[in-house]
Amino acid sequence: MQFVADAMLGRLARWMRTIGCDVAYYRDIKDRDLTDIAQRENRMILTRDTLLIKRKRVRGNAFFVEGDSYKDQLRQVALTFSIDPYQNLLTRCIECNVRLEDIDREKVVGSLPEYVSKSQDFFRTCLRCSRIYWPATHKDSIMKTLHEIFGE
């Protein structure tokens, strides 16, 4: 399932990308543009906007996110849409929403801090923004947060 998050749900959008969900997000977007994207790309609208959720144009294609914290929001969306938060973990660029591709260490070693190039063997990259990802201590932090949200 693909989603588009309204401007109030930026942190939720990043965390959904972290767990592998396809979530379009724009910091500044008008309701009309949001609904156009949802219709054109067959995306479910995630919103906190009570006026938007009541519009006839979005009925059946919008989900009202109730939680105030990103943790509550992520739990609510994952449970509602039966998303396994661990199945596709760290497979999307959190900035661009593009699926990450594996890349050979030799191709990125010059772009990395020395300690990373010496300590890591597995890398992924975003083909849109060229951002490089590798498993590090932040993965442990992500896992800890997900366990807080969803339990073990």
Give a short overview.
With 152 residues, this protein is α/β, with parallel strands linked by helices. The chain contains 7 helices and 7 strands, in the order E-H-E-H-E-H-E-H-E-H-H-E-E-H. The strands form 2 sheets. Strands 2-1-3-4 form a 4-stranded parallel beta sheet, with helices on both faces.
Tags for this model:
152 residues; alpha/beta; 2 domains; 4-stranded parallel beta sheet; 3-stranded antiparallel beta sheet; 7 helices; 7 strands
Explain the layout of strands and helices.
Elements: E1 2-5, H1 10-18, E2 22-25, H2 31-41, E3 44-47, H3 50-53, E4 62-64, H4 70-80, E5 101-103, H5 105-108, H6 114-119, E6 123-125, E7 132-133, H7 137-150
Parallel strand pairs: 1-2, 1-3, 3-4
Antiparallel strand pairs: 5-6, 6-7
Helix pairs in contact: 1-4, 4-7
Average pLDDT over all residues: 93
Instruction: Report strand order across the widest sheet.
Output: 2-1-3-4
Beta-strand residue fraction: 15-25%
Q: Give the N-to-C terminal Cα separation.
A: 24 Å
Runs in which pLDDT lies below 50 for 5 or more consecutive residues are none
Class by alpha and beta content = alpha/beta
Domain count: the total is 2
The total count of strands amounts to 7
Q: What does it look like?
A:
- Helix content is 39%, strand content 15%.
- β1, α1 (10-18) and β2 (22-25) form a beta-alpha-beta unit.
- It contains 7 helices and 7 strands.
- The mean pLDDT is 93.
- It has 2 domains: 2-80; 101-150, no CATH class.
- With 152 residues, the chain is of the alpha/beta class.
